[in-house]
Amino acid sequence: MSAKLDNVLHAPARLQIAAILSRANEAEFATIKDIVDVSDSVLSKHLSALSDAGYIKLKKAARDGRQRTWASLTSSGRKAFAAHMRALKDLMDSAEQAVSAE
């Protein structure tokens, strides 16, 4: 296997977040929370980990009288997500070859 799995993205919720953000310019906290189906605190921890790694950018602003948070992938986050997906595909291909060789 040539590509390496990314430990930051490997957590299932973080992988879901990156997948969501790879298809959108940005997504609001509540939308991500609904899709990933985690609590506010769990989502906050995952967003912080992705932000600390430089994979996402968080933007806070008032909207409809409330403070809201939006997340978007950075260019390094997009590259890391693409590399992680290649690593997962390589892993799947290796496993399929091993199974079919039996």
Strand coverage percent: 15-25%
Structural class: alpha+beta
Shape: elongated
Strand order of the largest sheet: 1-3-2
What's the N-to-C terminus distance? 19 Å
CATH level-two architecture: Orthogonal Bundle
Q: Into how many domains do the coordinates divide? A: 1
CATH hierarchy class name: Mainly Alpha
Residue runs with pLDDT of under 50 for 5 or more positions:
none
Topology, number of strands: 3
Radius of gyration: 16 Å
SSE string: HHEHHEEH
For the biggest sheet, the summary is: 3 strands, antiparallel
Tell me roughly what share of residues is in helical segments.
Answer: 55-70%
Please render the helix and strand layout as text.
Layout: H1 7-10, H2 12-22, E1 27-28, H3 29-36, H4 40-52, E2 56-63, E3 66-73, H5 75-101
Antiparallel strand pairs: 1-3, 2-3
Structure in words:
The chain is an alpha+beta fold and 102 residues long. The protein has one domain: Winged helix-like DNA-binding domain superfamily/Winged helix DNA-binding domain (Arc Repressor Mutant, subunit A, Orthogonal Bundle). 62% of the residues lie in helices and 18% in strands. The protein has five helices and three strands; from the N terminus they run H-H-E-H-H-E-E-H. Strands 1-3-2 form a three-stranded antiparallel sheet. A hairpin with a 2-residue loop joins strand 2 and strand 3 (66-73).
